[in-house]
Model the fold of this input.
Amino acid sequence: MSEATIDPRSLRAPPRRPLRLSWSDERVRGIFWQILVVGIVGSIVWWLWSNTVHNLEVRRIATGFGFLNREAGLPIAESVIDYSPADTYLRALVVGLLNTLKVSVVGIILATILGTLMGIARLSRNWLLSKLAGIYIEAIRDLPLLLQLLLWYAILQGLPGPRQALNPAPGVFLSNRGLKLPWIEWQAAHGWALLALILGIIGTLAWRRVAIARRMQDGQPRRVWPVALGLIVALPLAVWYALGAPWVVDWPALRGFNFRGGANMSPEYFALLLGLVLYTAGFIAEIVRAGILAVPHGQWEAAQALGLRPKMVLKLIVLPQALRVIIPPMTSQYLNITKNSSLAVAIGYQDIVSIANTTLNQTGQAIEGIAIIMLVYLTISLSISLFMNWYNARIALVER
Amino acid sequence: MSDLTLTTAAAHSPEAVSRSAPLSQVGLAGWLRANLFSSWLSSAVTLVLLYLVIRWVAGFVEWGIVNAIWWVPENQTQACRDLKGTGACWAVIAEKHRFILFGTYPYDEHWRPALCVLLFVGLYVVSAMRRFWRKELALIWVAVLALIGVLMWGGVLGLPYVPQERWGGLPITLILATFGLAFAFPLAILVALGRRSRLPAIKALCVLYVELIRGVPLISLLFMASVMFPLFLPEGMNIDKLLRAQIAIILFAGAYLAEVVRGGLQALDKGQYEAAEALGLSYWQKTGFIILPQALRLVIPPLVNTFIGFFKDTSLVLIIGIFDLLTAGKTAIIEPAWQGFGVEVYVTVGAIYFVFCFAMSKYSQSLEAELNRHRRR
Done:
């Protein structure tokens, strides 16, 4: 039946005319313009390239990535992995990359939370809350991020020294040396408990799939939360308890001129994280607000008319539709946080850009240094886009 | 029938006298109840926020106005240092405001960059008015930008020559932003058209350019401009640092604006393209007379938002040492006497950026409302 409605002629490709060597043939003109443009761009690139090669010869700069195995001799203040100035440039760059990832990942998580809260607050029926969120969003978006970073850094540097540190909560110290937090001493039992937690989450997700599949067959709802409680909460606790329930909190304390113990957040990292999170949250708030407003009011009403409870309305009807609008611009905000973390160089946090810049100043390998920065960011950008595109495709509207 | 009798009976009953709404529902009390104290949770949030706002505003007024020091004699900043943390030292602004605004431009000639700033602002205001959106506007731009060049450089009409190395402050920020957009915009249109082109080689080039630029941070392009551009050029040929940064900003802005323009080209109804082709218009006629005027109109609000982004992003030239507004502010507090007053300087510089960005943002919102008027019911 359906075949009869399609005109069979439309399935056939249009007949290919033989190429006429005449200006009036569209394809000839197309080929001409392409050759022209590619030729111009190509010759400009070739000209720049030959100049560069010539300049490198004149200045006796050896190209290549051999310098990566030389001793770096550059001190790095904070590092996730072991590092000393006697290590190679390659290791220094890896440290920088990890520092970039450290600030980007934490920044993305915190900015998403704060931005979502601010976006919801902006829509609140409470006039004061909505206005204050509006003022925050407008003000933070109208100031350059670099200026905000410098301002936060100046404020953190203006704090009193460790001896007169601010102590807003027990064990939390804020001074011009950064933020000190109490931290649990890491022991083997914690590792096993963490492993049990991860296994528990995987098990719960698996059970959820099974539960949904069975419900699809017989229509009987099956509870997920008792399994989740058992696998995610009880199992890790049991593992931890079985291994002796170790619990030693490492409190920061003043020794001499500085603090000992606890977790430390350097002023540079703290200022960068604060600036990135507050700035990006302003943009995320607007995205979240637009996403929620994009769900037509009729959808809420129809869901309520079906007898769904308010929580279910949000979970089953509104959020899936709002997320569809929110995800694509959110992706570019995540990319922005990662790219903006390169402003670290202005306040002395040693991220990949800062270390690559020092490297190229020390070795004179300008082209390689810039190439490394660009390659790293292109890789990160592409990975985030790929992941978010995959997620977007998963939640996208299934159309015919 | 019975319904009808019922209603008439109700209308005549003595209770049906029209009464005004209860006092708790109208006027100030009603508004407060509806908007601030509608439920227990809402009341609690209101009270907590009210407390925080009053505390912060009071704290800021105390720091910024009550305890502030507005003026100190010749670099004697001890009074300011004694008040550190409890009062602002606006004396640093009183002392350094000329430096922050105009950098190292010769002191006696400061009226020239000041006039340039006014010319820039005038240019923005004229460009923002819809009644001036016509072809002559391009001529006004060329004339004003040329006049700004004459004023800044001098060397003619009895104005002393000022080398570009001595320019600084707000004019540099405005120059980077304005020239950046003036050149990036045509580039962006070409790239956006190229990306939608049916010719595979041109399309590939444009995609490569846009995705490469958008995948890396502006800083890496600025570094490239400051350390790699000299290697690109033939020996002996040298372009100055400001121009190199300007080129990097143009390339960067071009890629982002191209994506905005492409959004407009895609949003335009397909029938418009087909109708233009059916009329027998050539590609450039079709693009110039039919497609671009409509597509650009569709994307004016996001374009203005992108402009705001670039205005803010020009501050990144601080990292390669170009003397824009933010760099001037940062340099003003290097002098030992004024070290440690960063907060006051950054608040002031931030206020200047805010005025420009807020004006653009409000303009974008009003424009959006105006352009969408036909869609509103």
